[in-house]
Amino acid sequence: MSLNERVQEELEALEAILMDDISITYDEQSCLTLIKSTIFPSTANEVNKQYVCVTIEVKLPEDYPDSEPNVQLRNPRGLDDSTVNDLYKSIKEKCTEYLGQPVIFELIELIRESLTESNLPTCQCAVCLYGFSEGDSFTKTQCFHYFHSYCLYNHLETTKRHYQEEQEKLPAWQKSTKGFQAICPVCRESINCDVEELKTALPPKDLENAQNFEVTKDLRVLQDRMKQLFSYQKSKGGIIDVEAEENKLLLITETSDNGSTDTNEDPGPSDGALESDAQRGQRFDYRVSSGLNNR
Ligand SMILES: [Zn+2]
Ligand SMILES: [Zn+2]
């Protein structure tokens, strides 16, 4: 059987086993086969008990399986960096062990097994920055982000209150008719939570046991150093004063008016003259347009 046929056979087998859970495409430009699959722990189809997941992306070089595939793990959810690094290590070992043989299904199974074993988020709660200890009540959002139920409840209540306060300040015609929509504090996807249930959750253990915050001598020294650094950066124009920025006038200036030979991009305050409105306008203009170019 030719190399190509063997790979073809492996890919067909993958599609037959994983069906919709795998996507196999061929990139004409790079002549590489790209395989993608999002892997969840095995929880006997209880989807709400899957707390972690990761997407594997495999690029097959032309001489695969005689050379190792290029494997990337994307969008890990509920997994911290060290767990992802451990996965990479096991993947590398498996690839070396299986050199010359089909390995992709083995990789997917390896990751699935590892996710099943550690089907508990190893990341931190983005609200309180503590991890998840046994016994902590936590919530997984639809977007696979994790929070202590206690923290998420407090976050949702605060954002809701803030939203209502902002709405009250608006004139009637500007008020939103849609009402408050909770969003994930990490990725801003809309989320739907049972707030009444979250409300009953106890605070996470680490938060309970945390020492009361105290300003120590070291912190005071650090504070002083930061204060000096702040004044220094401000004096150099490195701190943007948001209020002053808002009151600035946006002047549309034609570069040709000032002559195109003017290459002095930053006149700075050193020449003793204050920056003219036109210069300021030009700079602003530049910032706006460069922002657009980056999109
Ligand atoms: Zn928390
Ligand atoms: Zn999210």
Which features characterize this protein?
9 helices, metal-binding, zinc, Znf_RING/FYVE/PHD, E3 ubiquitin-protein ligase RNF25, Herpes Virus-1, four-stranded antiparallel beta sheet, Ubiquitin Conjugating Enzyme, zinc-finger, about 300 residues, alpha+beta, binds zinc ion, about 40% helix, two-stranded antiparallel sheet, single chain
Write the layout of secondary structure elements.
Elements: H1 3-18, E1 23-27, E2 32-39, E3 53-60, E4 70-77, H2 81-97, H3 104-117, E5 138-140, E6 146-148, H4 149-169, H5 195-199, H6 205-209, H7 217-235, H8 242-246, H9 277-293
Antiparallel strand pairs: 1-2, 2-3, 3-4, 5-6
Helix pairs in contact: 2-3
Bound molecules: zinc ion (2 copies).
One zinc ion (ZN) is lined by residues 141, 143, 145, 184, 186-187, 189.
Protein name: E3 ubiquitin-protein ligase RNF25
GO cellular component, one term: nucleus
Biased composition (Basic and acidic residues): 277-286
